Amino acid sequence: MAAHLKKRALAEYGSQVQVIEPPGKRLKLSLLKKTPQASDTVYVGLLENCKTSNEALQVLLRIPDSLQLKSEDFASTIKKLCDHFNQQNESAVRAKVLALFCTIGQMPDADVELITDYVMKLVMKESSHKVIAQGLMAVLTLSKLLPPSSLTITKIFNMAKTFLKDTNHYVKRICLQLIGSLNVGDNTRLIADFIYSQDARVRCAAMETLVMLHENGEKLDVSLYADVCVALDDDYEIVRDVVLKIVCYLGNTYAENQVKVPKSDKKSRLIDDAFAKICQAVNDSSMGVRHTAMKLLGTMLDVSMGCLTQTLDKKLMSDMRKKKSLHERSSEIVTSGEWSTGKKWADDAPKELLHKDEVSVFSNGACGAFVQGLEDEFMEVRSASVDALCALAIAHPEFAVLSLDFLVDMFNDEIEEVRIKAIDSLTSMSHHIVLREHQLETILGALEDFSIDVREGLHRMLAACVLSTKDCLLMCIESLLENLKKYPQDKKSTWRCVKEIGRKHSDLTLPLVPKLLGIHPFFDTPEPDVEDPHYISLLILVFNAAQNCPTMLQLFEEHTVKHYSYLRVTLPSLVPHLTLPESVDFLEPASTDAGAQLLWRLVESLSVARPGMIQSVLPQLDTLAKIDSSIAGPAQFITMFISCQVLLGKILKDRLWCSNAATTIQGNAIKNNLTQLLSLCLKMQYLFVGLEKDELAAVKQFQLKALALHLVYIVKATNLSALALCDHFVNKVEQTQKFLMENRVVPNEFCKGVLNVMSTLEDAKPGAVARCLQPLLANVIMIQPPKPNIKVRMCHAFLNGPTTSPDAPLKFTAGLVMAVQLDAEIFGLKDPLTLRLRVHYPDHQTHFSVPAASHLRAVNDEGDYRLLTQALVSHSVWSEACYVEISLCIELSEGDMTQKAHYGIDPYLELCKPLKLYVVPKPIKRGI
């Protein structure tokens, strides 16, 4: 039926479509359809007729772009390609044929085993290293498409073992990759033989294959440890980089195994020895090796505390040997009976003589590894060092205390990403540490950072940490308040920070209450301004501390108690419940179920209410949405749905919707009401998230009713053309019917009548459609709004920016651009790509811009975002200062954007109240 309606709706334009369509386009489409069908016959036929290798190569390069084979053509095509492979003498052409086999094998209906067998047979007869390598690459790709139980996998494995004896390094590397990916049996020892290859690329490939086997679940033998440790001193960085991973894997797998310490009779744990060897790579000349070493150190969580302590100390250690005192060494000489006779030179020399090759200018073992990593010249190494230090500190509380000073020093790093990572790392390990005064000074110094991410990260870190003394607490609060003067946009983040500080430090806050609140024992101090952000910060701190310290309640003055009642209502998430004398009780809903039950009772009461009483429910719903935020979304949806019905009834009550108006004022009134009704329908469609199929069906059917009313008004009450409106209405009927059928929703009486009437029309012209819709609209009755679920949310935003006044307007040079810093919180955003920033000037010019994707940050998975961006303001000279309005809005889809021309509706839906800035462009000063 939908297709039938579409055909009738476009019937009067049928001749135009035939004239506009160019005749050449049909020919082009037919040629495109023939190309895939002729690819296997034409191109392979051309391949047989090629006289030179160059011509054959050109044909082979063109085949993959258009190759589409049928299932019955695979065998013949493969046979022809094999014949051509055997006839060619040029290695490049033969290699391309093998690559083409790989492309054919990846097609949907291809017989992978058959193609793999063909490739293996061709490769076994080949002598060119280039062709063999290409064939092995094709087999490697095709082997991933074979089932694990296939016998072909065993053949591939045997072929790879055979070609391991090849002299070409590229062939060996591919064979090693094949063996590692097939994972047939225990191949560790077979691969380990190639870690001593004379070619560094083969050694690297062997190491990578061992890593691949370990990641695939095959346990590496501990006997490999001594062999791979030799490769730590390899001349090539690609080998050293991979060897570090194997040493780390073996250390974590066999952590408790004992290994002998060089030049000593002592033994140590394998993971400690591996940890020390990886730490030595911190001094490597290659940045990549240092970066890999730092990443691996963070995964070795079972290392002993002694080794971890060495990483923070730059003093030279003796290769894990125990140092003996002078008294111990003298006693050993006495007990051994060995005395110097004086007849032999240097017979009384110390036994522990050091060779010149054993002395290194760099630190040995784990000595100072993290100190070196945190001071590295490359940002990648420093960032990996911070991550590793954090991971080890979380697993070892004692190490967290020792590493605190080093992490705090990273707050002064020159790269913002490293500073943020250091702050987040200290936040993660905050439950292990207590901040001292000297550490807090460095931390609070970072609050002056220009980056809002750094400042908010510090706020989260201070909220999670524990302070040692009341002086630290006072220093922290003073720095936060001073920072709030410089960066007023950090107000909410600062309040959340002081809330957690007060909750965790009740005992430290108690002696500071008189100083913080300005309480004097003899004199009455002036009452502070409760709207002052600094004073609110102090109140949030004190009230949260008083939650766990009842003694503090007796210190509050009368105005402090009044301010508590005010903040408890305005900032309930930041101020806890306290039992204070003479305070106003804050009525909180006992549970979210109580508000939901009240909402559903109001909705059910609408079914028996008279039309005049329905409008009286709107203030109750609005109040309920403000009281209980958990049901604000459903309450707002029902409020908007009822408002649409009230407005629809108001329009239908006046007969001007289907007849000419007597005056212009009456005509404008009905036109404005229709525009407002269509705007409300679009808001219900775009601004609510979490709607289920029943609510979406109700919105679509009501929108169809509003479009029908507007079409009848244009046809009956105006002399405007309704062809485009009629076409748009027919499309909406098709879309609504399709949605109802797909979701199995029963249409309401009006929608059912529209579908029946439209199916009987022979020609969907505006006049005929309007005559059919008029009686249906005249009998429209108000329906009960749907019962939405609790998860429904309305998209809205809060926009914060600089404050201006007529006494202090923002000034900029006319013709140039002024950037206004904006901080917005957006809730329930469906599609971030539809978000727009609107700047409205006093001369009614409006500019829209798309915020950068990096400026929009997701807060959670429920469609909440935070926008940190700049609004660009530019204009010519004004005679006096005026207000510029900045707001956030959502752009409608392309299908609904046409409604601006047809219905006069603004295609942008506002999400917040405009931010008004008092702006004055200054004229350009001409130089002398």
TrEMBL record:
- Pfam families per the UniProt record, alphabetical: INTS4_8HBD (PF24493), INTS4_C (PF25458)
Limits of the Integrator complex subunit 4/Protein SIEL C-terminal Ig-like domain:
800-923
User: Could you name the domain of life of the organism this protein comes from?
Assistant: Eukaryota
What subcellular locations does the record give? Nucleus
UniProt-recorded name of the protein = Integrator complex subunit 4
Q: Does the keyword rRNA-binding apply?
A: no
This protein's GO CC annotations: integrator complex
Q: Look up and give the organism this protein is from.
A: Nezara viridula (Southern green stink bug)
Please list the residue ranges annotated as the INTS4 8 helical bundle domain: 609-789
GO terms, biological process = snRNA processing
Q: Which InterPro entries match?
A: ARM-like, ARM-type_fold, INTS4_8HBD, INTS4_C
